[in-house]
Structure formats: C-alpha cells, structure tokens
C-alpha cells in the first residue's frame, strides 16, 4: 500500500513539473494572433525557460524580435536565424534556439546592459541595444509587444469532452484586428480577450 501511495505522489509531482507554463501560452496566443506565419511558433516554452535561466523578462526576446524582424518573418539577409538583429544583423546563428540563448545570455551578462539589469527600465536597454536614434519608435515597438503579451487572456483548461474547437482566424483577417505599433500609446493599457 505504501508503494502505491509513493508512486501516486511521484506521478503527481512529475505531472505538475511538465504542466504548461501560462507565460508560454500567452506568447503562443500572441504569435497566433499578430504573426501567424512567424517561425517562433511553438517556441514559447523555450523562450520562457531561457528567460528564467538568465533572470530576464520572458517577453523581452519576443519584443526585440518583433522590432527587429517582425517576429522572425524578415530576418537580415546575412543570417536567416538572427531574429533579434544582434551585431547590426551581422551575427550568424545555427538555429532559432541558438539565437534565443545568445540574445538572453548577451543581455544578462554583458557589461553594456548592466544599467538595464539594475533598473529594469526598457529605455536603458533601448539606448544600448538600438545604438542610434530614433529611440522613441523602437521603444514603442517593444512596449507594444510586452503590453499585449501581458494582457493576453489565457483560457482556463476545460475537460477534453467539454472543449470546443475554435476556428483560427485567417492571417489576412487578423491584420485588421491588430493595432499598429507606431500608433500604439504606451501610456494606455490594452486588454485583449
């Protein structure tokens, strides 16, 4: 009997360890709505894991990738996996995972980003990461992604028998529902259902 209880407890612990992180679900829902053809689809767990490992905001990579390459749709011609524009688009990466790890590691460890790590102010990151003005538009692009991801509602899990399949919007219709990042007011909170 004790062995059965012990095994049941182990199964519960193992099951909770692999439960889907809601932050990753928010990232996936954001990409599905604003950039359905992004090569970052399915990488929400990886983004969250890497951000947690380096103690960074889980939305940061996604925001930079949005500002630099439209969430991976338009990477620099020199490097097809450089979604974050590292080294002015000149850095070459083996894979998307390599770019995710390198970007998080760079921001978390390099001396240039010390001030951002200390304050957490996005403008401290923008001055160093962007390098040259105009900073305002770049900051709006980052803030847009970060605020929308935060506001993404994640539906509560339903039992499989009660779950209803939802038809995804077509990519061309989704663009009409989107807010242009350059028209985004960073002082206003947006709630997305």
Describe the protein:
The chain has one domain: Orthogonal Bundle (Lysozyme), CATH 1.10.530. The chain is mainly alpha-helical and 193 residues long. The protein has helices spanning 2-17, 22-34, 44-53, 60-69, 96-109, 114-119, 122-130, 136-151, 171-177. Mean pLDDT is 80; it is low at 14-18, 160-164 and 171-176. Helix 3 packs parallel to helix 5, helix 4 crosses helix 8 (136-151) and helix 7 (122-130) packs across helix 8 (136-151).
What are its keywords?
193 residues, mainly alpha, 0% strand, 9 helices, Lysozyme
Brief account:
By secondary structure, the chain is mainly alpha-helical. It has helices spanning 2-17, 22-34, 44-53, 60-69, 96-109, 114-119, 122-130, 136-151, 171-177. Helices cover 52% and strands 0% of the residues.
Please identify the top-level CATH class. Mainly Alpha
User: SSE string, helix = H, strand = E?
Assistant: HHHHHHHHH
How would you state the average pLDDT, rounded?
Answer: 80
CATH architecture tag? Orthogonal Bundle
Radius of gyration: 19 Å
The rough form would be described as globular
Largest sheet: none
Low-pLDDT residue intervals, each spanning 5 or more residues:
14-18, 160-164, 171-176
Number of strands: 0
Distance between the ends: 47 Å
Helix content: 40-55%
Regarding quaternary structure, how should these chains be classified? single chain
- SS-based class: mainly alpha
Number of domains: 1
The CATH topology label is Lysozyme
Proportion in β-strands: under 5%
Q: Specify the number of helices.
A: 9
């Amino acid at each position: 009997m004790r062995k059965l209880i012990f095994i049941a407890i182990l199964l519960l612990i193992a099951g909770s360890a692999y439960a889907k992180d809601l932050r990753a679900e928010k990232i996936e829902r954001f990409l599905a709505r604003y950039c359905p053809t992004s090569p970052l689809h399915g990488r929400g767990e990886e983004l969250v894991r890497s951000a947690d490992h380096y103690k960074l905001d889980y939305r940061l990579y996604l925001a930079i990738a949005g500002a630099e390459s439209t969430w991976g749709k338009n990477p620099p011609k020199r490097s097809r996996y450089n979604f974050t524009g590292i080294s002015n688009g000149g850095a070459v990466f083996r894979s998307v995972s390599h770019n995710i790890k390198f970007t998080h590691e760079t921001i978390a460890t390099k001396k240039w980003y010390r001030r951002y790590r200390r304050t957490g102010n996005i403008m401290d990151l923008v001055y160093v990461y962007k390098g040259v003005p105009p900073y305002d538009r770049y900051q709006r692009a980052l803030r847009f992604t970060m605020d929308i991801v935060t506001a993404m509602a994640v539906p509560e899990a339903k039992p499989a028998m009660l779950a209803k399949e939802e038809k995804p919007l077509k990519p061309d219709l989704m663009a009409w529902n989107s807010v242009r990042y350059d028209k985004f007011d960073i002082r206003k909170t947006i709630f997305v259902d």
